[in-house]
Write a structure and sequence with these properties.
Elements: E1 2-8, H1 16-30, E2 37-39, H2 53-56, E3 58-59, H3 62-75, E4 78-80, E5 84-87, E6 92-99, E7 105-110, H4 120-123, E8 132-135, E9 138-142, H5 151-159, E10 164-168, H6 176-190, E11 193-197, E12 200-202, E13 207-209, E14 213-215, E15 221-224, E16 230-236, H7 240-247, H8 250-253, H9 256-259
Parallel strand pairs: 1-2, 2-4, 3-5, 9-10, 10-11
Antiparallel strand pairs: 1-16, 4-6, 5-6, 6-7, 8-9, 11-14, 12-13, 14-15
């Protein structure tokens, strides 16, 4: 069994200093619940202040890496660090950072599918790499927000061994029904746990719906937040996955020979 804590909060638009302080405070509260893994939302340090990323983005993710590494090590907890705006030499990516209990950065993933409705393609460059990692002995994969609308991308990772799918997001409130339906579907069709951390609050252009979720491979909701700032916790049992997959053997019954 592994205990998960999701930090669902209102991100201060374009204010990294305030957001770093908020995350530090929330992690200090979350560790009282003794979680194995803490999960943050998408672009937690800047919000969607995309036009100012040249000012407020994190060069090579250095500040975010140092900050999250320190939190993980001091609190002896693994952290799926949502995502941050990572400044490269000539572009910016929306990048997930994952740390183990020793504070080691074990994985980075840059969002593969950019969301045109929020103008991501104008300010960000998409990633092209898959997102496999092992955290707390869990074969895992990471995706970011809009990625969940591309089931073939998540299925690819499940076929290749992922059993837990982490999804940080800034999902708009008006499509909360889609958020819940898509995440439940991704859990059922891939027979994986889905751990999804959304934000709440508003920015100048959007309102965000919260409803962070922990979903089991049957599609049953283990824990769900509302629309307020909160820390959501829930237990997942990795030993359930082989049993579920043996009862309905979808991976054995696939017909890739006809899918092309």
């Amino acid at each position: 069994m592994k205990k998960i804590a999701l930090l669902q909060f209102d991100i201060a638009f374009g204010n990294p200093e305030e957001n770093f302080s908020k995350v530090k405070e929330l992690v200090s509260k979350a560790v009282h619940e003794k979680p194995d893994i803490i999960v943050l939302p998408e672009l937690w340090s800047t919000g969607y202040d995309l036009s100012r990323l040249d000012e407020i983005g994190d060069t090579n993710a250095e500040k975010s890496i140092a900050f999250l590494s320190d939190l993980a090590k001091k609190n002896h907890v693994s952290i799926v660090g949502g995502s941050i705006a990572k400044q490269h030499i000539d572009h910016v990516t929306n990048t997930m950072l994952v740390f183990n209990r020793d504070g080691e950065l074990i994985h980075e993933y840059s969002k593969a599918h950019l969301f045109r409705l929020m103008k991501e393609e104008k300010y960000l460059v998409s990633g092209n790499e898959k997102s496999h990692f092992t955290l707390e002995d869990l074969p895992s994969a990471g995706f970011i927000c809009y990625d969940i609308r591309f089931p073939e991308w998540l299925r690819l990772h499940a076929i290749e061994g992922a059993q837990v799918l982490f999804v940080p997001a800034e999902w708009p409130k008006q499509r909360t029904d889609h958020w819940r339906a898509l995440l439940i579907s991704r859990a059922i069709e891939n027979q994986c746990y889905v751990i999804a951390c959304n934000r709440v609050g508003t920015d100048p252009d959007n309102a965000f719906g919260g409803h962070s979720l922990i979903i089991d491979p049957w599609g049953t909701i283990i824990a769900e937040a509302g629309e307020e700032e909160t820390i959501v916790t829930g237990l997942i049992d990795e030993e359930e996955i082989p049993s579920i997959r043996s009862r309905i053997p979808i991976f054995e019954d696939r017909r890739p020979d006809i899918y092309n």
